[in-house]
Design goal:
mainly beta, Porin, eleven-stranded mixed β-barrel, signal, DUF2490
């Protein structure tokens, strides 16, 4: 009996080893690099002061190159219109409710397909004052509605968390060209929650950005910087690394001493 048991165990081990050998190894990750540019214009306005409500409208143009085309302005990737309602009734906190109309265009060389993506967005930002700057934490929950490349309608929730720092720069001239200058940077992680037939992984994007912001006047401010982000495609094996310049202008009806662009959505996903 012991000999028979040993024979079965040996046979089982051999069969298990052959099964493991027959299973394909998980595919290796690949990485592609794509230059991109982000240009944005924002318009901020009051709504109802008694309720601490204001509004903002954003217009964004994203262009890109491809894996073998290093011109970040070669193709139009998407055009975005994004209205917001902003509540600022708590000290050092802001809450945002927004909608994004995101028209994406085909970029065959990079594997992008044309689709209309709409987003509903809830966002909260908490900032902490420092002696010569601010630190901010931001959480954004958005739901994306779009048709995938096979024509299947998708509803994909996504969670975004951002941590950033702003350094206030000194004014060295009595009449400077720009007022209230800052150097800012942030890191942002995005997780998607998609059905398995669309994407197996929750990781979506990791993004970093460094930028200079200042005021041309107390109503008009600008941002100029660079972004770098790594995005996992839905096949779960291909990382796309986008990099390039980001420029933003913001006009506020009410004058502001300083604008740090903590909520700027500078990305090329």
């Amino acid at each position: 009996m012991n000999l028979i048991k040993k024979g079965f165990i040996l046979l089982f081990c051999v069969a298990a080893m052959q099964t493991l050998k027959a299973q394909p190894a998980p595919p290796p990750y690949t990485m592609g690099f794509i230059p991109a540019s982000i240009t944005e214009g924002d318009f901020a306005f009051p709504i109802y002061d008694k309720w601490h409500l204001s509004g903002q409208a954003d217009f964004q143009l994203v262009t890109q190159g491809a894996y073998t085309n290093k011109n970040p302005y070669e193709y139009t990737q998407r055009v975005v219109v994004r209205p917001w309602i902003v509540y600022s009734g708590f000290e050092n906190m802001k809450f945002w409710l927004g909608y994004a109309h995101n028209q994406k265009y085909e970029v065959e060389e990079a594997g992008n397909y044309e689709t209309l993506e709409q987003r509903l967005i809830l966002m909260g930002t908490f900032s902490q004052n420092m002696p010569k700057g601010t630190i901010f934490e931001q959480v954004r929950f958005e739901t994306k509605f779009f048709d995938d490349r096979n024509g299947v309608h998708r509803v994909i929730p996504r969670l975004r968390a951002r941590f950033g720092v702003n350094h206030f720069l000194r004014q060295t001239k009595e009449k400077p060209l720009f007022v209230a200058p800052n150097i800012g940077y942030y890191a942002e992680l995005m997780l998607k929650f998609a059905p398995k037939d669309y994407a197996n992984e929750n990781f979506d994007i990791f993004r970093m950005s460094v930028y200079y912001t200042a005021g041309i006047s107390k109503n008009l401010h600008f941002l100029a910087g660079v972004i770098g982000q790594m995005q996992l495609r839905t096949n779960g094996t291909q990382f796309d690394v986008y990099y390039g310049p980001v420029v933003s202008m913001k006009y506020s009806i009410r004058p502001k001493e300083r604008e740090t662009f903590d909520s700027v959505d500078g990305g090329a996903d």
